[in-house]
Amino acid sequence: MKKKIVILGATGTVGSKISEILLNEGHQVTLIARHTDKLEKHRALGAEIIAGDITDVQTLTNAFSNADSAFILLPDNVKAENTRAYQRMVTGTLIKAIEDSGIKHIVNMSSLGSHMHEGNGIMAGTGEQEVRLNQLDGVNVLHIRSAYFMENFLRTIGLVKNKGINGTAAAGDHAIPMVATQDVAKIAAGHLASLDFSGKSVQAVMGPRDYTYREFTTLIGKAIGQPELPYVQVPVQQIKQTFLSNGFSEDFVDNLLEMGTAIKTGFMNYQKREVSTTTPTTAEDFVNQVYLPAYNL
After folding, report:
1. Does residue 49 contact residue 87 with C-beta atoms inside 8 Å?
2. Cα 45–48–49 angle (5° rounding)?
3. Per residue in 114-143, pLDDT tens?
4. Which phi and psi (to 5°) does residue 84 adopt?
């Protein structure tokens, strides 16, 4: 039976893939994004497209009112002067829209590491959002706790091309779970369509295994013909100045860097890996199927 499903962040790396899966399955899908230009391709598949901000409670309430389920998330705001205050405001807006609309099934995009509420940067906000959503009465909420997105390596393509290195603020030799967003989207879409969850629950999505940043960089190097491509842990202050010069707020940058530098503490490795949390797309698959085409653009 086809469902009415709302997707927030429909232009994002996960939301866009969820949208495509559900539309191809014939569901009645409403896509909400601040900038809808990238969504026009979905209109031909039957999507309803709404231009709206995640802080617009009335737009969200109207969209949720007749829906069977909705995919929600806590988007970054690189301009926020107080990141945690912004996150709390967004969570409050989402909760009000859920309560006012009467929607009964919510799939919430969270993250590994969201069991902690401090010391993990941006993820302290996703952890708090989980707790607040769990207080909703009569609403079934499934939190997708995703591993580190393999797609994050696409952000450093410029560094690889221009400097001949790959690097972030994170330690190069600490292995963490990494996942391709296509695997996250497939799992989220399945729950949104089947409504197979009740109460408040967590689904961890951890990728095929743990990888270090250095190991992943080596795979990238082999694929692009630079087998000796080094991974460099870039000094925090150097990265911070780069972000600030690009117009990011200092508070957002501090939260982002706290998340990256705290990875070596093990907070991303808290979740136990088992068959139900392991997904198929390997780093090798990702590099060949996603990274290499993007690198060659």
Report:
1. no
2. 110
3. 887 777 788 889 999 999 999 999 999 999
4. -65, -40
